[in-house]
Amino acid sequence: MAKIAQFNANGGWHFYFLKDRKMQVKTILVADSGSTKTDWCLVEDGHRRTFSTQGISPYFQTPAQVQEIIQTELVRQYPALLQVHELYFYGTGLLAPANARMVEDALQAVFTQTNISVNHDLMGAARGLCGRHPGVVSILGTGSNSCFYDGITIVKNNPGLGYVLGDEGSGAYLGKRLLQYYLYDSFDEELKFKFDAKYQVTRDQILENVYRKPLANRYLASFAGFLTENRGHFLIENALEDGINEFFFNHLYKYRESWTSPLYFSGGIAHAFRDVIQTLCELYELQLGTIVRSPLEGLVNFHGE
After folding, report:
1. Which residues pair with 88 in a beta bridge?
2. What string of DSSP letters covers the chain?
3. Distance (Å, rounded) from C-alpha 27 to C-alpha 24?
4. Which residues, at least 6 apart from 189, have a Cβ–Cβ distance to it below 8 Å?
5. pLDDT, tens digit, for every residue of 168-221?
6. CB-based burial of residue 7 (10 Å sphere; 0-12 exposed, 13-18 middle, 19+ buried)?
């Protein structure tokens, strides 16, 4: 069985396998992976079935760890997935060829008889939300990213700087802001009581998780739920508006197309706080497209055409 690897104009690595197969209904598996969660969808004979595993990121996991996640959380539960013909995987951190190769190797070690296409999550969001139409596409999840997509390729990308220096508007960014308020004793008594009751965490434990333990971005993003639960409090609303507005200012403002094309958003943070995004779009007179938690459904439609 021969394998051909090609880096295409869309900025993704595609891996093709030349093999003889009996004529049968084509099955495809599509994955949209962030740092925290991976959503999978199996399409077989017109029927769809969805699955979830933890997130896969080449920045935080080794090839062996990625393979273990796929084996234990996906294939072991659903062994029939090993028989899929095509796998389209979109994930965070896969713009770099070395990262794409690492994830592809882990996938291929499990899906040995499958044609695999690996691409980065921003292309996944663009195809899933815009299809073959142009738009400014943003991801607001555990991390954040944005681009201008012309309906075929990603023409412009204002890259993020990761959760330490950037990721404005993301779950990690908003969680970091919340922890700053808490550790600087900026909460009023009501908010501090609710935070302590929910998390029961000390200052030392927070610092340990942020500075010494792995996956600090996930840890920071885990506090975004507190923002959702306490909407209406002035401090929470200020944190949300400031954090998402900084994403607009530092990223969306850098695209001239933001004033001529619709803005599309994907990710848990974008979906949870879509009212804040809508308010900012109205304030800046920008055209809002759609906001989805995951582009998976759109990606399935894209690859099923």
Report:
1. 30, 117
2. -EEEEEE-TTS-EEEEEE----S---EEEEEEE-SSEEEEEEEETTEEEEEEEE---TTT--HHHHHHHHIIIIITT-GGGGG-SEEEEEETT-SSHHHHHHHHHHHHHH-TTSEEEEEEHHHHHHHHHHTTS-EEEEEESSSEEEEEE-SSSEEEE----HHHH--TTSHHHHHHHHHHHHHTT-S-HHHHHHHHHHH---HHHHHHHHHTSS-HHHHHHTTHHHHHHTTT-HHHHHHHHHHHHHHHHHTGGG-GGGGTS-EEEESHHHHHTHHHHHHHHHHTT--EEEEES-SHHHHHHHHH-
3. 9
4. none
5. 889 999 999 999 999 999 999 999 999 999 999 999 999 999 898 888 888 999
6. exposed
Residue 59: phi, psi to the nearest 5? -80, -20
For CA atoms 88, 92, 93, 95, the dihedral sign is: positive
Could you give the count of Cα atoms lying within 13 Å of 101 in the half-sphere of its Cβ? 7
Q: Calculate what percentage of the chain has a pLDDT beyond 70.
A: 90
Which positions ≥6 away from 240 have C-beta within 8 Å? 174, 227, 273, 276
Tracing tokens 């070690």 back to the chain, one arrives at 109
Total residues belonging to the chain:
305
The tokens for 101 are: 């190769």
At 213-230, the pLDDT tens digits run: 888 888 999 999 999 999
Reading across the β-sheet that carries 154-157, which strands appear in turn?
154-157, 144-149, 135-140, 263-266, 288-292
CA 160 to chain centre: 13
Q: Judging by DSSP bridges, how do beta strands 2-7 and 144-149 pair with one another?
A: unpaired
